[in-house]
Fold each of these.
Amino acid sequence: MIQFRLNGEAVSVDAHPMARLLSVLRRDLRLTGTKEGCGEGECGACSVVVDGKVVNSCLIPMSQIDGTEVLTIEGSGHANIQDHFLAEGGTQCGICTPGMIMATRAFLEDAEATGAAIDEDSVRAALAGNLCRCTGYGKIVAAVLAAARTEGDA
Amino acid sequence: MRHVGNRVARPEGPAKVEGRAVYVDDIPRAKDEWVGGTLRSPVAHGKLRCIERGDFDFSRVVVVTAEDIPGDNVQALIVDDQPILCADTVRHVEEPIALVAAPDQGTLCAALDALEPRIDPLEPVFDAERSQDVQSEISIDKGDVDATFEGATRIVEGEYHTDSQEQLYIETQGMIADPPTADGTITVRGSLQCPHYVQKALRRAFAVPPEKARVVQCETGGGFGGKEDYPSVVACHAALLAHASGHRVRMVYDRNEDLLATPKRHPSRVRHRTVVADDGTLLAMDIDVLLDGGAYTTLSPVVLSRGVIHAAGAYRCDNIRIRGRVVGTNHVPYGAFRGFGAPQVCFAIERQMDRIAASLGIHPVVIRQRNMLRLGDRTATSQLLKESVGSEEVLRRILAHTGFDRHEWRKERSGNKRRGVGLSFFYHGAGFTGSGEEMLKGKVTVELDDDGCALVRAGSTEIGQGKNAMFTAIAADALGAEPDAITIVDPDTAAVPDSGPTVASRTCMIVGGCLDKACRTLADRVGGDPNTPFRERASAFVRGGGDAVATETYGSPPGLQWDQNAYRGDAYPVFGWAADVAEVEVDLTTFDVEIVRFVTCVDVGHAIQPQIVEGQIEGGTLQSIGWSHIEVMTAENGRFRQDRLATCIIPTSLDTPPIDVLLVEEPFSNGPFGAKGVGELPMDGGAPAIASAIEDAIGVHVTHVPATPERLLEAWLEAHPDDAFFEAKR
Ligand code: FES
Ligand code: FES
């Protein structure tokens, strides 16, 4: 049994230690908000936050998840980011969006903790692991910057 | 207009940002659901002798081959040359040979491994220039080209090449098929652009009438043309397995299979010979277009058609000859990708215009101003441009914004990192070519319910482009209702009419136009005091027994004429116009190209949803930027080399410059609220603008995209044969 906290709740799953976190989330736990675009760590559609860091869940074996805190798109605490993605036009087909939002969340929380700058360049760097084929990224970057400005107000 | 022109929320947006949107692979697995897979050819050309069965208990799975197909073994599209499963001759690598369904993935893989196709190899053809197999040929003739060449003093010649490109929707292809019900109805649901295309393919494969082949679109994670024709293949495969096994069957490609087996942009070679006057006026254009169609015809004749019509660019010339050919090879069939033949020819003509400008020593802007099509001019097909011609305005606006007309293009530059700026100017026909729309007769139905809410039934799909919000805005304003009174019914062939495919920049202009008319019909019927909310009035009307359903069928605007044999006349109802300016920095050590800045100015007629229109333009432009220098897609012995996302590269947020979008609105009288198509246009101009900027930066004439570092080094060495430093690096 692998035990961890998922979106704030304790869970234990009977998974093979080498099973991918992505598959366990999608198939065993029926949390299909996390997407698969490549299965090899290139697209970021499968991004989730593990212990405050954004990771590609397609590359993470369950053995590494034991005892961690996992956040997915189904969890709470990213409504502000989601609102700005909608307001700024940061989602089109939407398949990259959950991953983008989780990467954004990790980035904004990290910046808040470290006081790192949040600007166009740092946002682009933070999202470099998340591919989007629809938007051209501009409206996603705008959404993240807008979310950063209002973070805490929500 | 209260909602048209102002932001309406995407109806499906909240589900997308919250991860609740249901894409095909998010559908929960049914208890007795099976998984399907495809046995594919390892070779590009050969005779299929047999499929050997190795050491495996095949009673655990179901295997389907060509002879198990209940209807015709034909992938129904334009020409009946492509089988659903190969029965005899293999024509491309990864061609489907057999299908397997199994209770689980492990069993499926074991079964596929135990099947061995025996193929006697035949000589493949990979070079389009050498192919004898002409899939389609089109000519355009205007004026007297030969006579103009005879007396010519100045002829500029150029040859241009573009490589293939992968659509790279982030959601791969996928379908789920249910076994036939007691009355023989087959249902498939999946990721797709054109439900009625899929229905047509299933009808043929199963020999059933339309009502027995039901197709439901799931939320779709991008298409860009890649989900125009290929979903029919996956749907037929999944449905055949469901039919044979009696189980629900899920087929979702992994990225590797998707990259190797599905159609991509047609590679092209375009030759230009142009007679020009000393002041740069185009006197005659002789253009030869060659596309590699790959192993089967698929949509290639239509891609060629758009390519040929756009080959002379957005320019005026009295004497034009265009010869276009798409030929068969043993490559994986090439297919639809945003732009549909136009990006290839746009690259060629825009590079040719720069070449002409350079040969005359005049500015790239001047050559375009001198020759651009304006209101009242005639195109290559002799189409008279009667209205909604934003050509002058897009150029004026982009020059005012960028000052490119004052930039000294191709001035000798120094240093190891060299900056350059380039321009492209282009147009794109909106909607189907020629009499296409007339033949399609797309339909939209709007229905009022007891509560006075409107249900919009259309076969158009939401693939991220914003159809739902755009239709909501059109319906709301045409009815005089609020957006919350509008429901866009999800595409399901059992619930929506055939509005024609979601392709060709036609959803807003053509289908949106029908929606507008249907809603106005209903608004007239409902009548009443406009100060009373529409829902109240509509509810009373419906409860009072009023006729609550309006169906609108597309009819071409009066006066459009198209001669399909001569390729002459009104090729499109209207054109979108655009200009791009790119600024690049080329590193002379690595020949890496960085895009510093990108500006695009687009005439969209009228922006129904400005934010969504900008999103389309930014996304399409980035695909063009990617194709210009980053996105390499090449085949070796007919097999795509870029078979994973680690090697099939598209731009990330870091590769992407800020893209400034300027909108021009020259309304089109026959589009809804003046709107015309915008989906494909942004794909056309990025690559030539960047090639032009690279030429400005380092002085080499880029004639082949993508302009990879290897190609640029090659071109640099050709221009600087005694550059010892680079010679040593070679
Ligand atoms: S699916 Fe994990 S990075 Fe693409
Ligand atoms: S919105 Fe479609 S991939 Fe990002």
Note: Residues 48 and 81 of chain A are 15 Å apart (CA to CA).
Amino acid sequence: MNLKFLVPVALAGLLAGCGSVLSPGHASHDFIVTGAAPDHLFVINPRTRKVVSDFTIPDAHDYVSVIVPSPNGKVAYVLVNRTRSIAGINLRTGKEVFRANLESPGERLTCMYAFDVTPDGKELIVYVYRTRLEIDQYKVQAPRFLIFSTAGGLHAKPLREFPAPRRVQMVLAKKDGRSFFAIGFNLYEYDLKTGRLIKRRGILDWHRPHHLRPDMLAFWPVTEPTGIFSSPVYSTLTGPGTPSGGVPETSLLTLNLHNGHLAYHDIGRTDALIFSTVIGPQRKWAYGAYTQLTKIKLDGAHWRVADRVNLPHTYYSVNISPNGKDVYVGGTMCDVIIYDARTMREKGDVRLPGCDDQATATLRVIERR
Amino acid sequence: MHWRVWSLISGGVAAVAVLLGTVGAAHAAMMPPAAARAGLAVVQAHCSACHRETAPGHFARISEERKSPEGWAMTIFRMENVHGVRLTQKQLRTILRYLSDVQGLAPSETRAGRFALERRPNHPILKLPYNLPVMCGRCHSLARVALTRQPASEWRKLINFHVGQFPFLEYQDGSRDIRWWKIASTQLPAKLAKLFPLHSAAWRQWRNRPRADLAGVWIVHGDMPGRGDYYGTALIRRRSWDRYRARYVLHYANGAAFNGSSDAIIYTGFQWRGTGTLGGKPVHEVYFAAANGSRIRGRWFLAGHSEIGGDWDAARTTGAPKVMAVIPSALEVGTRQRLILVGRGLRGGVDLGPGTKARILVRRPYGLILSVRVNAHAAPGYRTVRVGGVRSRDLLAVYRRVDHLEVEPAFAIARLGGGTLAPVDAQFQAIGYTNVLGAHGRVSAVRLGAMPVTWSVAPFNAEAAKRGDVRFAGTLRQDGLFVPAEGGPDSKRQFSADNTGDLYVVATRRTGKTAVVAKAHLIVTVQRWIKPPIY
């Protein structure tokens, strides 16, 4: 399926985060974090279906997008200011505790939706595009990874900078705290301290037999609760037995942030578009959102679409409760809906006060004691 | 963004060049020295702080490209909106005319991109090599590219500007599966400079030609899809070296009046940009004069609704005798009709071939009005039109049956309205064809022109049927004009979708018990907020 007619240009992005590794058995509760224009950051209690906090992000400039919670769930790092700033907001008090305005003399820096926090919560890895602004021309520079200390305060400056490839859609910290992944034309793994390229594996450059070059728009990377990032990948199946023009096919790409394992699973013919997915805690089901909520059965090596229900409108972002019982869909407009993960029935919904658009804000799940 | 392009580009408001200094300029042919000096003075005063004057009259970047007035307007608007340039309306006009004249395009260099300047709706994408449709034709038409002339170094800077200004470009569909930046920053600039170079023989010759004087009496004919042919005369008067005023005495095919007037500026010696009225409605004109000033052709369109408009073809009343058009262009056998031969120097009798009888009713400055009888057994096919010694082929056909129809355009996009934004309509017409047996038993289809038909819409596929697109997307009028609905989420639709749609537009022509049917594909999509001078 061609994404061209379906993906608004403004949607060019979203990012991923590490999320907390949840150990079952703790007396903790999960909360949903989402954002909305012009400057809202919301915390939602899914049990009461109430917005418990509606924080104002300073200098968001009518733009709230990717959200990355710290591993302890205390701070949310939010891409604001038309991708030129990252604000860290304390999720209890709403206070801004971190701010990185992406700037450099004579240059324009933009975070291409790709940033993450390290598992120890101490550093942010931010992928930026750079343009030199000269008196009568712009000069495109090579992109970079900027490493910030989360203790950098409200005028954080990068601690380290590394060269980066172009067109990276996502940055994800590995759980061992020593390296991080970048997803672009390939999957790259870099040393967090030195920026050395450790490993490169094919994503778009990966040639699968009987498949045309795949298309992936992975801007809704949610890694909780399993530490596995997943994203739909669209391709066309060709070769013997397929009609001319091929068969549009959806696969799920997964990247395990514990061990770096990368895999593709075909889930069937592309009958409906999926924008983002989440893997359930028992790794038996995955869920995908767009105009429909899709439930995918992960049965050993055999993954397939098991159920599909219509959503009231389009939702870009999907997440799941730590126990795997409730699926949350959000993003786009001003509501978050809770579905029963088993029956796929709607259990309730939360309207955001003011009804401002979430647009590309990521729906994240944090845990609180 | 609001583009003030029309108040700026066309001759709607009188503005006279400021006369500065006394020294002659090198651009005497294209514009008078005083106007050239005035333009240069604005560049020096308002652009040279950033674009250094590296040699007298030569400014970094500015002097290294040539383009259309609309192209210059786009750049100057960006200099205002993004780089803080402040110009008065008068300075804007002065610099726009200056740059368009001294760094413009020769007539042949505008040909490929004229459709965009004329704002022709649903124009197919330009066929250009090097994967340019994918690399450069996704966000705007390739006319923007084809109407720019610059060296590789400037193409490279323009590409750098694109990524600096729109960093997500590389992430969009069409870019993200190729190495857009690598291709665009390494191979492409030299290829673009080869296709569209700064220096060309065509421009060297054109810039030194004296301007043709367009004043005089002109014969006009044209076609307005949905309304049909029109014809008549234009009286064009010269007001200054680059300004004209025109008066139009025109008629629809049925003789009803379709009058108008216009004020126009001529850029680069041949590009007519006018603002006025036609049939009582405000219109803009984008015309191009032939090099010797003997013909003016182009398209006019309604102000604010550029998708509605008509072709324009004007020739001088003086010159070799000729028939320019026959209205209507097809005659059914067994009928008697009024026929207009648009043309000049049409003296002597009229002969439309065997089985026809033509009588001249009246002679007009734009041609002849005839009464024609076509008998029931007249042979179908193209007829040679003979007037005195003048013969014209392929302008008139005789037919017994309409064997098939084609809807034009075969594919169209309409856009929803909403708020302050007018919808973008889509105008269809049904073109009739009759089959004629040729010399070697070969059947050929003879084009008869637009036919009256019954219009309807149908869902394009099962999905569209399920969504109820026919009910939500808009209405198709019986003149073939599709008027889209209001935009915005519609709570009556599934997923609160916008009133978009995927439709067939169906033309049906019934004669007795038989019906001929033809279809076109119409996509009704969301609003477009930005309407730049070159789409």
Note: Residues 30-368 of chain A form a domain with the Methylamine Dehydrogenase; Chain H fold (CATH 2.130.10.10).
Amino acid sequence: MEQVPSILRTVGLEKSYDLGRTKVRAVCGIDLSVQKGEFVSIMGPSGCGKSTLLYLIGGMTNPTRGSVFVADTDITHLSDSERTALRRERIGFVFQRFNLFPTLSAEGNVCLAQEIQGARGRKAGVERARELLKWVGLGEKAGRRPYELSIGEQQRVAIARALVGMPEILLADEPTGNLDTENSWQIMKVFESLNEKHGQTILMITHNPEIAARADRTIHMRDGRIVNVEEDD
Amino acid sequence: MSFSFPTLVRANIFQRRTRAGIAILAVAIEVTAVMVLVGLTSGTINEVSGRIQALGADIMFRPAGSSPLLGLSDTTMPEAAVDRLLEVEGVDSASPVMIWPTSEVSGAPTNIFGIDPEPFERVGGELEVLDGRRLQDGYEIIVDRRLASTEGLTVGQELEILGQSWTIVGIYRAGIGSRMMVPLPTLQEILGLPNKTHVVFLKVDPGVQPRQVSSRINSELSGYETTLMEQYAEVLRENIVGLDQFNGAISSIAVVLSFLVILLAMYTSIIERTREIGILKALGASKTYIMHTIMSESVLLCSIGAAAGVGLAYLTRWALVSRYPTLSVEFTMEWMIYAILLGLAGGTLGAFYPALRAARQDAVRALRHE
Ligand SMILES: Nc1ncnc2c1ncn2[C@@H]1O[C@H](COP(=O)(O)OP(=O)(O)OP(=O)(O)O)[C@@H](O)[C@H]1O
Ligand SMILES: [Mg+2]
């Protein structure tokens, strides 16, 4: 296992928030290595630092100490713009809250992500957006606005949006958090097929042990640390 | 990179109408304010100078140190200067005019000309009588059509001016000299200035350069000043102290106000959208993309605002002129472009700072923003 190069690696990763008098240590000393094509789930009680870890890996915020390597690049040494570019090219994000743009339709939300990726040609963009939405089972509802969609459907739009550039790494923060079992399984199917057919590396936060068990490996966190790692195969 | 409005711009403008409306209104008001206020000053100057130039004279002759703005100075000269002027080579005719500004007729200060009808018309001020008859003598007054219609004056009516009762004997076509004229001797008498005059208008012989005649006058008669009528509008503009500063002050105030409103509108909209900007950053949107989105929205809003402002300016002019027919509002292309550019600059600069701030903020902080 040591021979396989890791696509993601954190070394002594720490993040604390200064709240005036007190300091919140959201992540304290995480060493984690994820191989290309691995499907990893992260579990842990609320407030243990799962989202913070994911944001740090995605370069959305800088750590207080430690490093994050994406492939061989230490992204903590990159500028904000360089980290943004890295996200654009290699990382897809699905947020804990879906964060769709309310003024845009499902299709518009996906097209916006394409625009950010620098995709040319509106027509081709719309077709590709429809294709992605069809793939997550929303082919019929591409023209609807977020408020006209169920929570599960909104989450699937967010996933379609994250897949626009077919990123090597998909970071998903509780993608099934607010969903019933059926919707959850539907999303898991999408993730599994991405992982198996396209070899995408997936890091997924979940509170559901059954969902977590579908991953190759489950990391358990508590108080900003990794307390246990379970191989699920 | 092909230029197109980012997807979000279109959605934001059409779906956040109130905010878009406020920004548009701020720019529109700025453009309207600058255009109307500047248009009012230049319209008034052009109208006044146009009326004076319509006298048909070539040269205005007045005591040294008096203002070329008629009615502003009470320095007089002996009427005998007319005879001296007629002796100067190249002078064809000379018409003495006394000027008395009064607010008794229309509320706004309006000049009354005391004229000697015969030389007045010889110099070139053709008074086309539309109703009634010409001036003769005594307490007679003629008024121009514009004043007659705004004040509802008719031939035969009496006007109370300078403690005297004047009879309207005629109404003449507007646009020549002043809006009211009385016989020169009557005005001299009532002002207690017999055989005096404020200015003399001169006509030069056909084919003679007014400039030559005016320099000849200046060398032969000392203690006087001459103004070439073809330069009158310019002279008027130069003599209204601080006109450019006034226009500048008005437009700066309009610009500062609209700048603040646009800044506030854009700023609050960006605070509102902090989360959205966080999402954009998380999706990999570059600073350039975010700036482009916000700035194109602002430029688009400002352009709509500027266009609306030009329309509103014309509407305001129409409303002003129908309410106050003696007002003149003249729009110049130069100031219209200036007003539009100021509006665009205010809006884009107003959006620039919040846009830059938004593009620079930490993605996670932005995402957690409520
Ligand atoms: N901006 C912030 N300022 C201060 N403290 C913060 C900030 N963001 C997160 N925290 C704190 O950091 C800790 C970890 O937060 P994080 O969101 O990573 O938890 P989580 O494991 O994702 O929780 P959940 O399962 O509820 O989503 C929490 O105690 C939280 O209160
Ligand atoms: Mg979380």
Note: Residues A 50-51, 96, 173 surround magnesium ion (ligand 2) (CB under 6 Å).
